[in-house]
Amino acid sequence: MKTPEEIFIINAEYYSTLFQLVAKCGIVDTNTFEIKSESLNHQYLPNLTDGIDVRTAAPFKDMFGWLKHYDAFPCLYRWEIISPDILSKELVETIKNEVKSIKENTTIQTPRTVKYAFPKDNTLYVGKSDNIVSRIMNHLGYHEQTDQHGLHLDMWAGNHKMVFKLHVYVFPQECKPIMELFERSLAEIHPSLIGTH
């Protein structure tokens, strides 16, 4: 039976090889998609009998086509608000309150919101996933399961006529155990309005 010290060494060597993989080879792929709040539509909700699958809807078909290729890969992603390009303190607080209100008044889960100093850029949220298609559907608001948290842009973004950029970074499949560290490093560079790390 191995001692705790031996297990620590084995784990350190294992995780080290994963970091070296990224250090030497980089990430697998990256892409950026622009999403206008006016493209969000309640008809995309999957529980409607006459609903439209958001993955095949014209505004999102190309994005989900690309994401589908990497649905089994660990991914980092960042939601950026590009319009309005300057966020007022009032708008930031309104966004936080609207997202918080969804969790308080429905069964839908949203990320935690915290009070802190005004953010240094327009990053709305930073996250990770190894099921990126479902994850982005939840963030858009077209959740298949309400217990999985998301931004649910469909429920509030249209009120402000916003434009977002979704940045996606695809990592090698072996890197799943270390994605939390990469997520934290991305969140340090781009502190988000919603969510905690």
Question: Would you kindly provide a written description of the structure presented here, covering whatever features stand out?
Answer:
The chain has 197 residues and is an alpha+beta fold. The protein has a four-stranded antiparallel beta sheet. The chain is globular and about 55 Å long. The relative contact order is 0.23. The chain has one domain (27-189). The chain has five helices and four strands, in the order H-E-H-E-H-E-H-E-H.
Overall shape: it is: globular
Q: What percent strand?
A: 15-25%
Into which percent range does the helicity of residues fall?
Answer: 25-40%
Give a quick account of the main beta sheet: strands, pairing sense, barrel closure: 4 strands, antiparallel
**Strand runs, count:** 4
What is the mean predicted local confidence, pLDDT? Answer: 89
Number of domains: 1
- Structural class determined from secondary elements: alpha+beta
Order of helices and strands: HEHEHEHEH
Enumerate the spans where pLDDT stays under 50 for 5 or more consecutive residues: none
Q: Distance N terminus to C terminus?
A: 36 Å
**Which strand order spans the largest sheet, edge to edge or round the barrel?**
1-4-2-3
Please tell me how large the radius of gyration is: 18 Å
| DSSP summary: helix tally | 5
